[in-house]
Hints:
Blueprint lengths: L1 H14 L3 H19 L1 H13 L3 H17 L1 H11 L1 H20 L4 H16 L1 H12 L4 H29 L2 H6 L2 H14 L15 H11 L2 H30 L5 H29 L1 H18 L6 H12 L4 H12 L5 H16 L1 H11 L3 H19 L6
GO cellular component, one term: plasma membrane
Membrane topology: Multi-pass membrane protein
Protein name: Nitrate/nitrite transporter
Amino acid sequence: MDRLASLRREASGLWAGGTGKLLIVIALGWGLLNGTRMIYPVLLPQLSADFDLTLTTAGFLVTLIWLGYAIGQVPGGVLADRRGERAVMTASVVLATISLLLVVLAPSALALFAATALFGLGLSLYPVARITALSELYPDRIGRALGITMAAGDTGQTLLPPLAGAIAAVAAWQAGLGFVIPALVAVAVALWLTLPPSTDRESGDGDFSLAGARSVLGQLRHPTLLFMAVILFLYIGILQTFSAFYPTYLIQEKGLSSAASSTLFGLFFAVGIVAKPAAGVAYDRVGIRRSLPIVLAGAIVGFSLLPVVESLVPLVVVTVLVSTMLGSGAITQSYLSDTIPEEIQGTGLGAVRSFASMMGAMGPVLFGAVAERGFFDEGYVLLAVLVAVITLLTLRLPED
């Protein structure tokens, strides 16, 4: 009864004052964008066949998404601070929609790669604006609110990739990717109509100055923020690398069918639906040093076991173990939101996330080159070591 009453209080707090409706719309946009991004790994075998891609070039295709996602987060954060979250998030979804249409119509590998990079840029505008909007709506519940939107992202990543794989199997990869375009258009309209115009802020000074940039960089040179940038870089690199090649790995190395591999891939994100809100609550209650190592422990075990398991049931168990690391996003980004000074929150978050994402984006292409040389299994052991390094680094972070 106490737990049920506690859940009701939390739900009431998140819904109070009309903020719940805004949370739902923001979460829907994040879920759809994340789910669309993770369609790429499921369709990678078909894309490789149609455009004659090797494992290395296929990895580079995924890297382009993450590079675009990294590059745009600094301007996305600056625009969120100066122009407001509604305009930035709507522009993000519109740009992603246009670029997906170009991907579906791509006549050559060069056009495919260019449109994919543009898709990454479209994605990059959304995340920082989402975080700053939530920090304004829920100053005392940022971990919980961020956990819910991240769970929505994992819902999209759970449902859309298997659905895209099934559509591609009976039609073509273009249909497996193109079916999300109407939904993206609907979300863009919903964001513009639902988020209040008051969140669209006109900058008082208007221009970006060198002195202002130096001031921001000076505040971001705090040792805690630099330390968090390294942790975030390692985490993002691991997640991007794993998600880029897991369906391909299951098909080529474990002998699973395309349907089974896409289902396991969806299961990986399904666990995040529960893990991220739980991790957000844990962060709000006990802080980063006691919550993050617990969340990462399962991934260390899972990555270590992945090369030695073969049948479906053990692979399901390993997938669930690895997926617990998805909860770390709610913890690390809530910690960053709490740590960066409020007056540069959007710009600061964009800068830290952009640096971490840009460095981490190298993971898929490097992993693809390693896998192409016959070291697929060894690559996953290396990921286990990197997760262990993140866990040790976490213990050096201050709670406040």
